[in-house]
Amino acid sequence: MRNLVAVVLILTFNLSAAAQAAFTGFTAASTQTERDWETKFRAIPSPDNQREYMRRLSARPHHVGSAYDKDNAQWILARFKEWGLDAHIETFDVLFPTPKIRILEMIEPTKFAAKLDEPAIAIDPTSNQKSEQLPTYNAYSIDGDVTAPLVFVNYGLPKDYEDLDRLGISVKGAIVIAKYGNSWRGIKPKVAAEHGAIGCLIYSDPADDGYFVDDVFPQGPMRNPNGVQRGSVMDFPSSNPGDPLTPGIGATPGAKRLTIKEAQSISKIPVLPISYGDAQPLLAALKGPMAPESWRGALAIPYHVGPGPAKVHLKLEFNWDLKPVNDIIAKIPGSTEPDQWIVRGNHHDAWVNGAEDPISGQMALLEEARAFGELLKQGWKPRRTIIYCAWDGEEPMLLGSTEWAEAHADELRQHAAVYINTDGNGRGYLGMGGSHSLEHLMNEVARDIEDPESKVSVWKREQLHEIREAKSADDRQELRSRADLRMDPLGSGTDYTAFLDHLGIASLNLEYSGEDAGGIYHSIYDDFYWYTHFSDTTFVYGRALSQTVGTTVMRLADAEVLPFEFTDLADTVQKYTKELEKLLKDKQDEISERNRELDEGLFRATLDPRRPTVAPPREDVPPFLNFAPMHNAADALTRAAQRYDKTLANAQAHPPNSATLQSLNEQLIQSERRFTDDAGLPRRPWYKHLLYGPGVYTGYAPKTVPGVREAIEQKRYTEADQEIVRVAKAIQDEAALVNAAAEQLEKAGQ
Ligand SMILES: [Zn+2]
């Protein structure tokens, strides 16, 4: 009882303290008005409605081109209209391959035919919709018919091939079998092909998302022996996401299309995903050296590497058809600055029924839209235009969002202030990723959202979660003392990619997760039954997601001054600069040490003749690079950001007139664009952002300052020096913009 009283007192104090602080970009008076509207907004999203949206949208398979995908698009359009939004569907025609022939068999030393099938489960009512389910496959695998010895390659990453070199094993002319995980799946066939493999299998090991983690479906949430992860293997990190036939332009009816042969992003070798039920006999038939300990999974077999004696035959053929993608676009016009846009999206297509991916995010988006409809009726007038987007074709590789962003590129570059994405939701902690000029805003919002389980703010819960997971005392110290939690940089793998990486629009990606482990990703078992038994079963985190994203949208749409903040950004740029220096130093040390061990004869002397290994090659120690331009630029940005912060704080007492506000906001909208260069990243010009990008060898996982970082990782040191200069110039341009914005505010305040 005493504890309860204490909690109540603390909450009251925090609330009244918060009530005094103005939101970034608002005056004290407009903060109060905004707070009232936001409070009304957050009371509206309903868990029960979200449950019904999920039941409806995931009732049948709804992949690109399917009947129910189109039906869902019409249904979403009708809801937006019913809630009073100005909505329409935009359709693009994109290349979307579906399987015609899939054969995988072992022909030596014993015979085995892979089932390649996910059976219906009696207790799961949508798992038996066979005629509408896409078979298990990897989209944008090339057609192929190959027979070769099998080699196990761990996760199939570049480092794994270095380990294979040490074991004296080549995959040239072989078919590789890789585990799912630790990289985006398309990296595995890409790296295998670079090493001369002619085919690629990817399986889900039970150590990663099967019985090693928890009970398997339907007794538990994890992957059962037949579950298969479908998914795209389009090589988007080295070329571009979206329709492979229309890179850089919208896939409209009259668009000039490449031939399939000319398309850069289709895989170089045939690739097929399989279950651990199908993988086990293949892996069990391998001989050759034992796999390194860290490679081994949770199957009850000794993990050998091969090659052979297992020999497999893989035959794949696809229907290479154009299919429509239907994006639903809904608008709420802005009252004061209608030419400044806040864009919010989540996809609606799935691999199969897709309750978690993507409907758990789509249902939250729909409740936000419904709530905004209610607020508009009550007299809410957002200052800026809000655009809600339900994307189609995300699963094959961000088709709907990329084509829309490419088709509307000029308008978006001019008008779009921010893009906010979600792509599914679960239970647990708030995950915040995005442009660091929005880090402060997201921290501000997260303090106002209540966690449904612990009842503390989602900000507090995430802070304590990060303290619990922190690796060092320094990290814990920062988590306790830094005003804002750090936001993750964005890589790729979902619909913000074209907005952020191609157009340079400040972006956010949000979700709740961490207490929702599952093994149904991209299988027929990601459905209403699974979600309502094992994930956010009461839909309270669905409501929390609506509240989080909707509040962010409102704050951005209503603020007099767009709530960008640059000291967190400058701090992040400083941090990245130091990380890059450390990366180079670590490489130098590592290579020096290895060369020394070669000189000492360490590898020869410690060789176990019964388990022979090959000594690593001698390498040149990386040269020193000149990071001075980046340090100077980061310092310039830090000074500009501090100046802007100070003038913005003063402006809260003396708000500028509407002409100044408009020109200031137009300037702020361009701030993220300063980090783009039209020439793009080296060898992948579609990616124009110099601060964030997907890794060429990681895919989804981000590479910050990718031009410099990847040049160091890939040992192109002259290029690294050139890229440092290019990034430094972009940071200086950003500092100049922030200074100019501060000057506008200072003049207005005089
Ligand atoms: Zn998704």
Secondary-structure map:
Layout: H1 2-20, H2 28-42, H3 47-57, H4 67-82, E1 86-108, E2 112-113, E3 138-139, E4 144-152, H5 158-166, E5 175-179, H6 187-194, E6 199-203, H7 206-209, E7 231-232, E8 271-274, H8 276-284, E9 311-332, E10 337-347, H9 355-377, E11 384-391, H10 394-397, H11 399-407, H12 409-415, E12 416-421, E13 428-434, H13 439-446, H14 458-469, H15 473-481, H16 497-502, E14 506-514, H17 528-534, H18 540-558, H19 567-600, H20 602-605, H21 628-653, H22 658-669, E15 692-694, E16 702-704, H23 706-713, H24 717-749
Parallel strand pairs: 3-7, 4-5, 5-6, 6-8, 10-11, 10-12, 12-14
Antiparallel strand pairs: 1-2, 1-9, 4-9, 9-11, 13-14, 15-16
Helix pairs in contact: 2-9, 2-18, 3-9, 9-18, 13-18, 14-15, 19-21, 19-23, 21-24, 22-24, 23-24
The protein binds zinc ion.
Bound ligands, named by name, code or SMILES: zinc ion
Helix content: 40-55%
Content-based structural category: alpha/beta
The tally of helices reads 24
Radius of gyration: 26 Å
Oligomeric grouping of the chains: single chain
CATH second-level architecture of the largest domain: 3-Layer(aba) Sandwich
What number of structural domains do the residues give?
3
The CATH superfamily of the largest domain turns out to be Zn peptidases
Largest sheet: 12 strands, mixed
Strand content: 15-25%
Instruction: State the end-to-end distance.
Output: 55 Å
What does it look like?
- Residues 1-19 have low confidence and may be disordered.
- The longest helix has 34 residues, at 567-600.
- The protein is globular.
- Strands 1, 2, 4, 5, 6, 8, 9, 10, 11, 12, 13 and 14 form a twelve-stranded mixed β-sheet that branches.
- The protein has helices spanning 2-20, 28-42, 47-57, 67-82, 158-166, 187-194, 206-209, 276-284, 355-377, 394-397, 399-407, 409-415, 439-446, 458-469, 473-481, 497-502, 528-534, 540-558, 567-600, 602-605, 628-653, 658-669, 706-713, 717-749, and strands at 86-108, 112-113, 138-139, 144-152, 175-179, 199-203, 231-232, 271-274, 311-332, 337-347, 384-391, 416-421, 428-434, 506-514, 692-694, 702-704.
- It is built from 24 helices and 16 strands.
- It is of the alpha/beta class and 750 residues long.
- It folds into three domains: 23-94 and 323-558, Aminopeptidase; 95-322, Glucose Oxidase, domain 1; 567-749, Transcription Elongation Factor S-II, Chain A (Up-down Bundle), CATH 1.20.930.
- Bound molecules: zinc ion.
